[in-house]
Amino acid sequence: MDTSISHRNQNPAKPHLKAWNALTRWILHVPLLRTMADRQVCELHFAGIRSGKPITLPVMYAQQGDTIVILVGAPGTKLWWRNFAQIHPVSVWLHGVSRTGSGHAVGPGAPGRARAAGIYTAKFPDLPVENDPLVVITLDPYAANPSSRSE
């Protein structure tokens, strides 16, 4: 899997995509609206591996226990997932709770790929996984923290 980042080919997000992501993130933080989205969408928070800048984005996910799997569709047009070429800390806003964990990208033939693809395909059978990378997040054990819950 090629994880090099080429800034020459970097395409800035289109304005409508930024607006859609902002709306989706807002929905995930409004308790009455969250139920519409949080069965399929969670929010990732992590620091850029090179810049250290915080990155926040909504993603479709599949979950099995404390494992979250995210399909990186059209990976050549996205850079965020390359931060997970090595194990990288991440926070996930999931079901109104912030959870910490670590994530890593898995490509075809990588250890754990078949299990991760199976988790994703079980939830989204109509979305082909094919050879696209998957980001696998292992959540830290859940500890009740009232301050992490949305009111």
List keywords for this structure.
single chain, 151 residues, alpha+beta, Pnp Oxidase, Chain A, seven-stranded antiparallel sheet, 7 strands, globular, disordered N terminus, disordered C terminus
Short synopsis of the structure:
The protein contains 3 helices and 7 strands, in the order ααββββββαβ. The protein has 151 residues and is α+β, with helices and mostly antiparallel strands. The model is unreliable at 1-12 and 145-151 (pLDDT under 50).
Order of helices and strands: HHEEEEEEHE
Count of distinct strands: 7
The CATH class of the domain at 38-141 is identified as Mainly Beta
* Main sheet summary: 7 strands, antiparallel
How would you sum up this structure, described in words?
- The protein contains three helices and seven strands; from the N terminus they run H-H-E-E-E-E-E-E-H-E.
- It has a seven-stranded antiparallel beta sheet with strand order 2-1-5-6-7-4-3, with helices on one face.
- Strand 5 and strand 6 form a beta hairpin.
- With 151 residues, the chain is α+β, with helices and mostly antiparallel strands.
- Helices cover 21% and strands 30% of the residues.
- It has a domain of 104 residues: Pnp Oxidase, Chain A.
- It comes from Rhizocola hellebori.
- This is Nitroreductase family deazaflavin-dependent oxidoreductase.
Provide the fold topology:
Layout: H1 15-28, H2 31-37, E1 41-47, E2 54-60, E3 62-64, E4 67-71, E5 88-94, E6 97-106, H3 113-123, E7 134-139
Antiparallel strand pairs: 1-2, 1-5, 3-4, 4-7, 5-6, 6-7
